[in-house]
Amino acid sequence: MSPEDAALVDRFLDMMAAEAGSSRHTLAAYRNDLERAAEAIAGSLSKADTDVLAGLGAKWSDLAPSTVARRSAALRRFFGFLVDDGLRTDDPSEALPRPRFERPLPRILDEAEINRMFEAAEDRASSGEPSTLRNLALLELLYGSGLRASELVSLPRRAVRPGQPFLIVTGKGSKERLVPISTRADQAVQRWLEVAAPGTLWLFPSGNKHISRVRLFQIVRAMAADAGISPERVSPHVLRHAFATHLLSGGADLRVLQSLLGHADIATTQIYTHVDSARLVELVNSRHPLATRSR
Known about the structure:
Layout: H1 3-19, H2 24-41, H3 50-54, H4 56-59, H5 65-84, H6 111-125, H7 130-145, H8 149-153, E1 166-170, E2 176-180, H9 183-195, E3 205-206, E4 209-210, H10 213-226, H11 236-249, H12 254-261, H13 266-269, H14 271-275, H15 277-287
Antiparallel strand pairs: 1-2, 3-4
Helix pairs in contact: 1-2, 2-5, 6-7, 7-9, 7-11
């Protein structure tokens, strides 16, 4: 990257930090993408025209579509900055490649497999061993409330109060939402609190902190193995997907599901309509007016 381009990238990142409040990791990612783009262009990044940018698609053909999309997005924002600051009169970013890729469907467990995990966890918890009571409470909250792993491990000690049917969690973007707590989950948490170490800030403590997401991942996989399910198929996020898919199968409204999962965009929630396609076909066949119309 030329010194002139490097100086402009620095100005762009300063703007991102000051005006957009971008984190250190985000700024580093933008810098890396712009540097890789400059290498591919092999000329002035800031003065690249539409012909040069149109050629990036061929040069990036070996990259994953998500990588191409991310680098193109970084360049679009960079050229938009140059135009806004009067450093260019035109914006050539329309020529950038726009890869099309399908969003992968989430992995899920069926209801029979979920039942097996609960049966195994409940059987172990009958011993009264603190770790087994903790694990059952973790499983109840993951599948019963659809919490993200980071939300679950960071719950304060008194987040779940006896008889209170919901709790407030802070999710992505520091947004708060109400999360339902089933009677089963409430009881499992209260059993865990009876044996949990006192005087800690966290519902699921580990030393002076709460358990990590990595440790939660390990616990969930161990519970899957106990139930005779391949551990590679199971993770905290898979249980969150199962929560969403099984609610949708039970007739939950997509907007309600969006609220429960804490999705900012309903398009993210709509992925579950593809997962539960069998139910949707049955719904059309049984509820559509033409379903009862004779030939």
